[in-house]
């Protein structure tokens, strides 16, 4: 059969699939995954709640529900984000989404026509890039610095692209770089968005995974005019398989996005929504979060210590982090990152993700790669870093 693929689908290339070829090979040590630590899932609490839900409210869990979300969860999220980080004003509403991935595509569909531009950090979450591109938008990267995007470069890109419809940013422990946008830059980003009249999509799945230092207020807390869509997710703090996330945005936007979502999946599955609601309201969720942070702190420090010992002396550098799930490593000048990553997998059996997979500007030169510390066991972290170290010393001849 010779299929006629739509113009939008024809825009998709297989270049990223090729880059990610090695990342799912079970024979490799998985530093490439983007998965939360499996040992931190609240399995016992979820199992007990499931039993209670089917005993007490089976119809609510099994019947069709509202597109905007299970009302009790929307209320719980509204309270939770306000108490936790001051997000949500009188004009805002909560939309429950099927993963924050759905928040990305609903935003792009609401705001972009084909050929419009979405500005993002120069390396960013691949799922978001795919969503924006699948709506026909072009993605344009803003240069990154250790404290978040470059403000002069953001202004240059805003001037150069008057058809930029929104700025997508991951302010906390950015995927893939681990970088956190400083408080001062958050204010600057908001000021420029106002001056150039664009929306900000603030994607914050990692804010709760801060294991060191003080949290910074989300950009959304500066918002007085419905300019910021704040997306959060239960994927990293509970479990990604539940597919429950939320967007907090101006009521008008939420109404439009909810209508659009209805055509997509009618509603996010009710059972996981009720689970998230009851997990927050009936269990010691704060204690769960504290335990989660301990796991992430231990694993992140273990990987950073191993890299300091095994890879930094060979010339690899990385950005230290205070939270999240990722380390962004950079090879010395002159090294071929794609060849390094391919041979690291083939010769040393360690999978990492080439940085170019995350590039907003496809084809931009890149010497970095992403490592994940939440998925592998402690033993795999130690063994994988040793193998990476031996390989790197040979590869870089140091
Ligand atoms: C920055 C970022 N946003 C969103 C997501 C998707 O999360 P969800 O499982 O809620 O769709 C991820 C997943 O890795 C991510 O890294």
TrEMBL record:
<dbReference type="InterPro" id="IPR050859">
    <property type="entry name" value="Class-I_PLP-dep_aminotransf"/>
</dbReference>
<dbReference type="InterPro" id="IPR004839">
    <property type="entry name" value="Aminotransferase_I/II_large"/>
</dbReference>
<dbReference type="GO" id="GO:1901605">
    <property type="term" value="P:alpha-amino acid metabolic process"/>
</dbReference>
<keyword id="KW-0808">Transferase</keyword>
<comment type="similarity">
    <text>Belongs to the class-I pyridoxal-phosphate-dependent aminotransferase family.</text>
</comment>
<protein>
    <submittedName>
        <fullName>PLP-dependent aminotransferase family protein</fullName>
    </submittedName>
</protein>
<dbReference type="InterPro" id="IPR015424">
    <property type="entry name" value="PyrdxlP-dep_Trfase"/>
</dbReference>
<dbReference type="InterPro" id="IPR015421">
    <property type="entry name" value="PyrdxlP-dep_Trfase_major"/>
</dbReference>
<dbReference type="GO" id="GO:0030170">
    <property type="term" value="F:pyridoxal phosphate binding"/>
</dbReference>
<feature type="domain" description="Aminotransferase class I/classII large">
    <location>
        <begin position="29"/>
        <end position="388"/>
    </location>
</feature>
<dbReference type="InterPro" id="IPR015422">
    <property type="entry name" value="PyrdxlP-dep_Trfase_small"/>
</dbReference>
<comment type="subunit">
    <text>Homodimer.</text>
</comment>
<keyword id="KW-0032">Aminotransferase</keyword>
<dbReference type="Pfam" id="PF00155">
    <property type="entry name" value="Aminotran_1_2"/>
</dbReference>
<keyword id="KW-0663">Pyridoxal phosphate</keyword>
<dbReference type="GO" id="GO:0008483">
    <property type="term" value="F:transaminase activity"/>
</dbReference>
